[in-house]
Structure formats: structure tokens, C-alpha cells
Automatic annotation (TrEMBL):
It comes from Shewanella atlantica. PANTHER family: TRANSCRIPTIONAL REGULATOR DAUR (PTHR35568:SF1). InterPro entries: DauR-like (IPR039446), DauR-like_HTH (IPR039445), YheO (IPR013559). Residues 153-210 form the Transcriptional regulator DauR-like HTH domain. This is Transcriptional regulator. Pfam families: HTH_22, PAS_6. Residues 12-118 form the YheO-like domain.
Amino acid sequence: MRQLTIGDHAILKACENIIDGIAAMYGEHTEVLLHSLDANNPSITKIANGHITGRTVGAPITNLALMKLNEGQDVSDSYMTRSPDGKTLRSITIVIRNEEQDAIGLLCINSDLDAPFQSVMRTLLPGLAPKVDSGFTPETFARSNDEMMLSSIESVRTQVMADDTLSPSKKNREIVIRLNDLGIFDLKDSAQIAAKGLDISIHTIYRYLRELKTA
């Protein structure tokens, strides 16, 4: 280890939202943390779900984390450990490097394998998340931009057509508004694809978009 530079600390700071994102994805039974490898203070700089091992920001780096660093793998194989209170953990360690490829930090993930199954499932099942008043999700797992746009157009079209509060004459305009909100029209050839998918002229699409910009 060596003393980290201002740039090194900036890289680690930028990684902190990754810690929160992984913890949000896997829930309260997965501890996620960021170790700084600054020689002056090799310690935890960010941690989520620290109740699993009882650690907080400022806790020292572990001997096992140092061992994983010295193994030469930037992403370790998963390994089994135990928390101070005896929980069985499945862990992985990821080395964070700067532009010079110096190791400046470690991202560590520890999943509690002793957590009750039902509790784990409650944190993972999206159906238990707060219900959103929407008939579709704006995320489309497509293989190309065209496929993504067509899927989004069809999803929005289905939702709007089922909305009885909108008059038939306003539905195409509403579809264009919602597609614009999703950023569809920032993509290449999107207006042509939308016009074909909605069976309206491209000039109508452009008119709706001009109206939005002047509204």
C-alpha cells in the first residue's frame, strides 16, 4: 500500500453510489463496503448493511481482505467466511485501480447465508415493492435500438389506448408525449419508427414534438 493521491480519493468517492446500488439490489442481508488502501489509514470509507458484521465507516481493513489483494485477482472467487457473531457469509472482493493500475481500494460484498429464507425473498421479489400506477416499465431489455423503440412504442400505445379518460383524437398525441418523456426521440430514426408503429405520418410526429417545445 502507498499514500493515495487526491485523484485516487476522487475515484473512491465516485464508487460510493455503487455500494448503495448493490445494497439496494440485494437487500438487507448483503453487506457491501468500500475499503480505502491508503497507507495512512487503510479502512472502510463506505458501508451498507454493516449490521451483518457490526462494522462502520472507519473500521480497519481485515487480514483476509489484504490476502485477497495479494492473490493477484482483480475479482476474487467467492469464498466463505464467518461474521463476528457466527453468521455464515458468502463473500467476494473486487480490486479498484486508478489510471496507473495501482490498487487503491477494495469493494467487498458479504451475503448472509444464515438469513431466513422468507426474509431474503421479501427483499428480492419486485412484486413486494410499492406499486406504481403504470401499465408498463420504461426499461426494455432489447437487443437493438429499433427493437427497444418498437417495444416501448407498443407498451405506451397499449397503456394510452386503455385510458378511457383520453378522447380518441388526443391519444396519438399523448403517446408521442410519453415517448418523448422516455427519451425515445433522442435516438436515431426514432420519428420514422414511431410514425410507422403508430400508423401516422412522420409530419404529425414532428408537429406534436414542435408543440411540446413551444408549450
